[in-house]
Amino acid sequence: MKPGEWKSPLKASDIAEGGVSAAWPAFVGDDIWWLETRPAEGGRRVIVSKKFGDLIDAPFSASHQVHEYGGRSYLGISNSDGYLIYFVNKSDQRIYKKVNKDKPFPITPESESSYRYAEMIKVGDEIWCVREHVTQSSCTREIVAISDNGSIRTLVSGHQFYAHLRISPNGKHLSWISWEHPRMPWDGTELFIADVANGALTNKRVLAGNQNNPVLSPEWLDDSTIVYLDEETGWWNPWTVTTNGSRKQIVKEDSEWGFPAWQLGYSAIAILNDGRFVGIHGALDDRKLVVVDPKTGAFENVPSQFNTFIPTIVSNGKSVLAFAANNSNFSTLLEINIANKSDEQIVRPNPLPLPATFAPEIKEITVAGNGREIKVILHRAKNPDYSASGATPLLIQVHAGPTAHNYASIDREYLYWTSRGFTIADINYGGSTGYGSKYRHLLDGQWGVIDYEDVISTVNYLVNAGIAEKGKIFIAGGSAGGFTVLNALVHSDVFAAGADYYGVAELSMLATDTHDFESRYLDSMIGPYPERKDLYLERSPLTHAEKLSTPLIIFQGTDDKVVPPSQSEAFRDVCIKKGITYKYFAFEGEGHGFVKSESIITSLEESLLFFGKAGGFTPSV
Predict the structure, then answer these.
(1) DSSP code string of 87-135
(2) Within 10 A of 584 (CB to CB), how many other CB atoms are there?
(3) Do residues 215 and 190 touch, judged by C-beta distance below 8 A?
(4) SS3 at position 612
(5) How far is residue 229's CA from residue 155's CA, in Å, rounded to a whole number?
(6) Above 90 in pLDDT, residue 553?
(7) Is the distance from CB of 395 to CB of 422 less than 8 angstroms?
(8) Tens-digit pLDDT profile for residues 341-360
(9) Could you give the C-alpha distances from 368 to 285, 374, 453, in angstroms and in order?
(10) Does residue 459 carry a pLDDT above 90?
């Protein structure tokens, strides 16, 4: 049986029902908490305790909508009576308080979700956090203090964005990161501190960062010193800065210790009681936890069977919590005792749903592109019941962002494909993160050119190398990845079919009809709008839609606020007008990314059948 037609025991329903994703770990007293997203419950996000199991019942779902991408949405506090939870509830975006097993109650007013909250920290008897206010005509943010009785007072205003709120150990300083339009948090940010006295902030000042240097993830090392990530040398490396502004680089290496701040709540640095800290560094296919002595700059990797460590990491002073993965384990929650680095305890296992013999070979390769190198992560076809000695069907996967990257570890949906005989090529095209600022800035002014060029170059390389079977080459991507998919389809004829997940079809529509966080994102990647409307027109896939001849399957969430349904509908209409083979699925109640079981099952099975028909083979769903 040929690759692409291999029978796999892994079904789409297994992906959806077993695909509970977890993130945002926390130490809460002597307990460990995390957040699970459950497709079988309509994508409900549940706070889970190692000791007590689920901490919030349906219909509550811990999910904030600040920046529309969410992030850490809960704060756990241990006390002599048990525990407290503060969490943002998805349906109304209010902060709720829950005491032990009591019913949650709201502490912020009803606003029909126009007020959203994130980055919660406990300061005295108050919750300090970022508050976002969204109306039809404006979006503003500030740092506020909230009492359990519902009173709210403003601490800081005047900036467009806030992140990484941290209070110093002695309570005398608040630190945070801010940035302004048109910059994104990977373009240029500033690390602020302010003095705290009687619950008020004074003497606000900038300690690090600027409009061209994006600093990230500040954590207080002691009462007067902050460890943070700085990109002054071209890579996000760890630095320290004192409250009087004295800066020092701790480690200098060509390795990324940071990641793009798409969500609020990330932490790239975890502080230990002995004065050291823990970070993540290394090549994308060999990431490591690393312990650093800030006094000497000496660092040591923590031994691990895992090669991918996923933001975010946290510490209780002695141990660290991190989600990690490799080619035979999905994202797995670990507790690592730093005093005994070999003590790696699995808190939440997440093994393959198949025998380990189905685990694909995963490695990063470098492909020669148009005057530049292209980073590609290959997941090779693997099924112990079949042999793939030659070329196989190829599925190109294009990551979203575009300021992001794909990891060199197993992916549940990828396993659906590799176990059926597909090789997957994850293309970290020029502009992706993980390779330093020079590589990331390749996309400046070039989105809609470099990304799809790198896709085509990779396809040509894999065909010539005998890895990809010509005539059975497919492409898929979502959001910004969908934009690249559409451009690759209209500017080439190398694909048998494509799958567009809520992709950007028309750029000026995106520039004028998207949410505040990304409303000026395209300024750096294309140019200011409307001054460079000509570039927006030229780079839009819809402009060149008359050249489309490749079968296309489209998936869209009806509630998507980032890429509105009108974008997908535009290419659906092109297919209808031109008589191109297509399928269009609009998933009710889904936003920017699918979390419901039925949406995940439908998109996987329909893509597989659509690709098989286009490639002239009969896959087994």
Answers:
(1) EEBTTT--EEEEETTSPPEE-S---TT-EEEEEEEEETTEEEEEEEEE-
(2) 17
(3) yes
(4) helix
(5) 25
(6) yes
(7) yes
(8) 767 899 999 988 899 999 99
(9) 19, 6, 11
(10) yes
Cα–Cα distance between 220 and 275 in angstroms, integer? 10
pLDDT in tens, 135-157: 998 999 999 999 999 999 999 99
- Predicted pLDDT at 20: 86
Amino acid of residue 79? N
Count the neighbouring beta carbons within 10 Å of the beta carbon of residue 104. 20
Q: Are 416 and 497 in contact (CB under 8 A)?
A: no
DSSP 208: E
Helix (H) or strand (E) holding 250: none
Q: Sort residue 240 into left (φ over 0), alpha (ψ -120 to 50) or beta.
A: beta
C-alpha 17: how far from chain center: 21
- 3-class SS at 55? coil
CA-CA distance, 563 to 509, in Å (whole number)? 9
What radius of gyration do the chain's Cα atoms show?
Answer: 24
Query: Half-sphere exposure of residue 600, counting CA atoms within 13 Å on the CB side?
Result: 25
Q: Is-contact 269 277, C-beta < 8 A? A: yes
Residues 6+ apart with CB under 8 A from 482: 398, 400, 500, 501, 502, 503, 504, 563
Are 77 and 28 in contact by the 8 Å Cβ rule? The answer is yes
Output the DSSP codes for 132-185: EEE-SS-EEEEEEEEETTS-EEEEE-S-SEEEEEEE-TTSSEEEEEEE-TT--T
